[in-house]
Amino acid sequence: MSSTDFKSFTMDLAGRTLRVDVGRVAAQANGAAFMHYGDTVVLSTATASEKPRDGVDFFPLSVEYEEKMYAVGKIPGGFNKREGKASENAILTSRVIDRPMRPLFPKDYRNDVTINNMVMSVDPACSPELTAMLGSAISVALSDIPFDGPCATTQVGLIDGEFVINPSGAQNLVSDLKLTVASTRDKVIMIEAGANEIPEDKMIEAIYKAHEVNQQIIAFIDKIVAECGKPKHEYTSCAIPEELFAAIKEVVPPAEMEVVMFAEEKQLREDRIRQLKDKLAETFADKDEWLGLIDEAVYQYEKKTVRKMILKDHKRPDGREITQIRPLAAEVDIIPRVHGSSMFTRGQTQICDVVTLAPLSEVQKIDGLDENVLSKRYMHHYNFPAYSVGETKVSRGPGRREIGHGALAERALLPVLPSVDEFPYAIRAVSETFESNGSTSMASTCASCMSLMAAGVPIKRMVAGISCGLVTGDTDDDFVLLTDIQGLEDFFGDMDFKVTGTTKGITAIQMDIKIHGLTRPIVEGAIARCREARLFIMDTCMKPAIAEPRKTVGEFAPKIISMNIDPAKIGDVVGQRGKTINAIIDECGVKIDINDEGMVSICGLDKDGMAQAEKYIKTIVTDFEEGQIFEGKVVSIKDFGAFIEFAPGKEGMVHISKIAKERINHVEDVLTLGDKVRCICLGKDKMGRISFSIKDCPEA
């Protein structure tokens, strides 16, 4: 098919035209969709290897989201004028695309699959991220790659109490909700949300509003696939032979396997599994074709055992009740000299969080495709070292998982942070994972909230988070929800539903599942269960450690004085080539930031130095008027008088007749360079110049 011989499909999506060109570009990919949403253009492609990759026991799916700076008419910043490594937004977008699509590929498929999305043009009214999500689903559905789709994705905002479908970049800035929902034909398969304390019932309403729109998109995709889709190719199944399972059950009967799995501590359970594998390796020593499959077969046997225990017997591997949260502990101020610190422990999951406060000049600059997002004042970073799970591995820096977990905890706390006017600081929280056995991102949310309060950040309300799990049976009505899932229940269960919020409502959601969607009762039940659990965590664990933000920042945190000046006076404060402001900084030992609106932040540790800097700035921006009193320093002596510097770059002249009450012949008889003096402004002289007097200045 030539580039001029292609098919184009259109639909109205939230008042804008979505167009999909098929067969126009990238013909050698297994599937390709040239996506146009308004003037946003994304090329989405899906490719698969011909054969399974040797030695892998998982489905090797890679999802990429490439932000091309030409899409917004920019040349990349920095020395190297090529696009570099993926931005944080690109990584998070890739994860959001991956999560709903991965469960729809066959579980026994081991061919490499890559889904690539290249953003080529950005219309601020039409999200390139959403366009890529739809393009990914369409390109795979069109391809010959086995896929139980299609799926569709919709974004929802909430402005002035009304839902907005697929909000623009400008609308997102004023929206109380940023919700992304992916669906299959029948069920919701992925939820990602940041919210300004949205009540649970309102959030559920928004989720199913998106689900309705997704059904229209799926009907549109079905039409495209019916005309242009390829037959799905055959593949080599990597399923474990049933005869191997049968042989393992003879060696380790199901009742014995339950004993192996029923252990409160992860280490004990892992020791038992190692012994079991050694026993099987001895038993099957003469079966070479089975030896390489033992690990995967035991994993699946573990999974079946745990799921049966939970679903049929309501028994959890560590002995907890279905709604029971693991033992909780919290403390603050565990790290000296930092600006704020806390530690939160839930079972074998433990997070230490440290907060750093800095002047607003330290905000993170964002060089991306969204013209509305240029900086980030609150930064949350999450680290996951190998020792936290008892492994030996060299740290290679944060991966996609770490960036995703940090972003979730960041999103959870953003709605309760004070405004810049209330608290003129840049804020960084770092969550260090000391121990991990399930839902460290939710522990990070709790720890970060406490360390922010310990640092004196006046957050509006306390935020906590918890994860809810799921095990499903053969029917939609056969399921069990699990509060506070540990790692094993995450690995072997069907869902990891994370919700953060305050007593007032939800601040963030992230839902991952391994099945083909959730029914509405499951979604509603999980959200309700998470509310109950997070209130319990706040009341019984977090509040006893620290109940409210401290009234002031700590001893070692920088102090900030904020003031507003006339923007027309900014140049006076800065001075020629920064001479005036640098003089103030050097003399007073402070940092000074001024934005274009005239907001001035003076930052330092010495209160006297900060007060002096504030006084200087107020003097510089004040127009001299009769009756005003100033303090200054003698910087120049002339025959006719002396020049007094009231602030760097701000000088006035005192005539010799106005220096002393008695007559003097020489200025030097009374004044010396460097003298500190008080003067009163006399107004303008006959020539229109401002004059000052020392002798007429009232006593202090």
Report on this model:
The mean pLDDT is 92. The strands form six sheets. Strands 8-7-9-10-21-20-18-19 form an eight-stranded antiparallel beta sheet, sandwiched between helices. The chain has a six-stranded mixed beta sheet with strand order 1-2-3-4-6-5. The chain has a five-stranded mixed beta sheet with strand order 11-12-13-17-16. It starts with 6 loop residues before the first strand and ends in a 7-residue tail after the last strand. The radius of gyration is 32 Å and the shape is elongated. The chain has 700 residues and is an alpha+beta fold. The chain is built from 16 helices and 29 strands.
Question: How much helical structure, as a percent, in the residues?
Answer: 25-40%
Strand arrangement in the largest pleated sheet = 8-7-9-10-21-20-18-19
Radius of gyration: 32 Å
Q: What's the rounded overall pLDDT mean?
A: 92
| Low-pLDDT residue spans | none
Assign the structural class, choosing from mainly alpha, mainly beta, alpha/beta, alpha+beta, or little secondary structure: alpha+beta
SSE blueprint:
Layout: E1 7-13, E2 16-22, E3 31-37, E4 40-52, E5 61-67, H1 88-101, E6 111-121, H2 128-142, E7 152-159, E8 162-165, H3 169-174, E9 177-183, E10 188-198, H4 200-228, H5 242-251, H6 254-261, H7 266-283, H8 288-291, H9 294-313, E11 328-332, E12 340-346, E13 349-358, E14 364-365, E15 375-376, E16 378-383, H10 400-413, E17 426-435, H11 440-454, E18 464-472, E19 479-483, H12 487-492, E20 495-501, E21 506-513, H13 520-545, E22 559-564, H14 570-574, H15 579-588, E23 591-594, E24 599-604, H16 607-621, E25 629-638, E26 641-647, E27 650-655, E28 676-684, E29 690-693
Parallel strand pairs: 5-6, 16-17, 27-29
Antiparallel strand pairs: 1-2, 2-3, 3-4, 4-6, 7-8, 7-9, 9-10, 10-21, 11-12, 12-13, 13-17, 14-15, 18-19, 18-20, 20-21, 22-24, 23-24, 25-26, 25-28, 26-27, 28-29
